[in-house]
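Hello, quick one for you while I still have it in my head. My current little project is about how a certain protein chain folds up. You're getting the sequence in one-letter code plus the fold written as tokens. Would you mind checking whether the tokens look sensible for this chain? Here's the protein in full, and shout if anything looks odd to you:
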Amino acid sequence: PGAAALDAGTAAAVANAETGAPALITRAQWGADESIARPTLRNSNIKVMFVHHTATTNSYSGTAAAAAQISAIYAYHVKVNGWYDIGYNFLVDNAGTIYEGRKGSIDEMVMGAHTEGFNTDSMGVSALGNYDIAAPPAAVLDSIGRVAAWQLGRHGFSPTSTTVLTAGGGTTSTYAPGAQVSLNTISVPRDVGKTALPGMSGSQLVSPIRPPPSRRV
């Protein structure tokens, strides 16, 4: 779906046509320590993709360095946060390489731990880097678009449309439990939570194809 601009029409067309996964690096290939992962919940649908950044360094190059960062994030999520696995379903490095995040996300509707109160019926993809201080490279935008086309398209959602999620509550959510919230199918955490993620420059990850969300409580 285009490069830096993520043209809305192209993204929608690819989402409707895409049937297979883009090229990506699996957990086995980036060296996930499966001994620390535990089984996680499954969604009944994937209606929204939340786009994050990891807020880690931008000064890395190559898949080995990216894999080392992902491994560190994974260990932090499990050993410090107490989560069952890494929070994101997929990650994208600064060269546009896509990585499998939470176990099973390639083939199943795995529930992540990426957007408190809105993990149900959604997925999370995270750009590996800090986009508070830098604009995302075109390759990152392109790959995030490919993940959106693959995941939203396979479940019948256009990346330019809106849908409704039910808020699950939580300390960082801006919505009460049970609220019906209208969101763009490609959204960011600050649309629903008390966070600046994915950073000011990170707004470029989604802004070309999404208007500001309307809120219903």
The first strand starts at residue 48 and ends at 53. The chain is about 25% helix and 15% strand. The helical segments are 8-17, 27-30, 63-80, 138-154. The CA atoms of residues 49 and 123 lie 5 Å apart.
